[in-house]
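Field notebook, page 486. I keep forgetting to write these up properly, so this time I am using the form the group agreed on. The chain and the ligand, adenosine-5'-diphosphate, are recorded exactly as supplied. Prediction of the bound pose follows.
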Amino acid sequence: AEAAAPVAEAAAPVAETAAPAAETPTVIDVRNPGTGEVVGSVPVVSADEVAAKVRELRLFQPEWEAIGPDGRKEWLLKFQDWLIDNTDTLADVVQSETGKPRVDSLIDPAFATDLVGYYARRAAKFLADDHPSPHSPLARVKKLTTAYKPYPVVGVITPWNFPLAMPALDVFPALAAGAAVILKPSEVTPLSALEMARGWAEIGAPPIFAVVTGAGATGGAVVANADYIQFTGSTATGRKIAVACAERMVPYSLELGGKDPAIVLADADLDRAAHGIAFGGMFNSGQVCISVERVYVEAPVYDEFVAKLTANVKALRQGIDGRESKHDVGALANENQANIVQRHVDEAVAAGARVLTGGKRAGFGTAFEPTVLVDVDHTMSCVTEETFGPTLPVMKVADEAEAVRLANDSIYGLSASVWTGDKERGERVARQLNAGAVNINDVFANLFSFALPMGGWGQSGTGARWGGADGVRKYCRQQAITTPIL
Ligand code: ADP
């Protein structure tokens, strides 16, 4: 927040003389959604400035590529040290622009720290030449090589739910691959990304990482200039970006919305399921692409499960934190988000659903109370649309087959969870689900295992995945080289 203050001062005269509304704003104020307080402001970077920045990155990138994975590892590990040394400051900035409880704000720097270490250490292995098909007859006369060569400039466009962790998921593997990166963070939470840029400069690393702030138009300029686009955000915006990339014939990957189902089978440990699903639905106020957004419960345990779930949700403490962790749930990112959640609840209630707890605004900032809804069905927006808020609609199902059928009745396919006392049964059900990841008796576990591929099916995304070798190779073009042996 401090870093952004000079920008606000410099921009003040512009605001005074500014022409009426139609004029494009030159500065964006950033607010703490828990308090409404302005915590900083950032410039709106123009399309010309973005183009110039990409040209500049392109000049410096070859040297970054030339130092190889081991040279880059040194810089990335230095940056890891910087993240560790600055964890509290970073959590302050995350907290100030998201209105999260302290404990959740610490997840952002912690996740970024672990991830940069993972890619710094493994990139050399993931980018090493492959020599495929030793049994091919051709291999008797030719050495066959697959080499990985980075795209010069990768554009990364990120949303507001994890203002450091979302950028980290792509900025670090792209840098590890040898690409330069231009990052356009969400205009709702740009301050954390600016901290990353500050840190990168502070350790004296090569100028191959830049952050440009602004809204959709600035993002559009990144899409118009970079050589590869990674977008994380809404399905609607992702579709626009795919079209723009197709026109330029530029590759892209999209990590979009979700409507993750949880299936509770009658043989599940109901205490664990209720606790895990309450966490999966309410963590970060439900603003996680892989939040639990729908729950299907086998009839024999439905009443008992609903009682346990409601008790878990009621026990959550909601409020604004300082540096001490006192609360489990904070505010929503902005007013628009609060309106979507309220609409989903109101439409469900109007169609016959019942609110067992929550259902209304929490009385500070944008915050919405953790909510459990029952008597819901697949005609209601709270079940068919992504809510991205603290709501858990629960449905009774006759058996496993009905649970699978309803879980698969969605345009999304990001992740899912299955709760059962029989792990093999859990795996069997997992393989029937249309979801890029399935956690058995857990939530989020796949995302914290960096070695696993993470990516959505259907309207939840397309293109390469996060995690593992693919997570870094996607930022490279493959080159096939044949060399005569004789
Ligand atoms: P949200 O995540 O708020 O639902 P979006 O998916 O639209 O909203 O936003 C995610 C990111 O995409 C943000 O950084 C936003 O500024 C950016 N963005 C929005 N529209 C465009 C666009 N047309 N082209 C490129 N980036 C965009």
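OBSERVATIONS:
- The mean pLDDT is 94.
- The pocket of adenosine-5'-diphosphate is lined by residues 157-159, 184, 186-187, 215-216, 219-220, 223, 233-234, 237, 240-241 (CB under 6 Å).
FOLLOW-UP: compare against the apo run.
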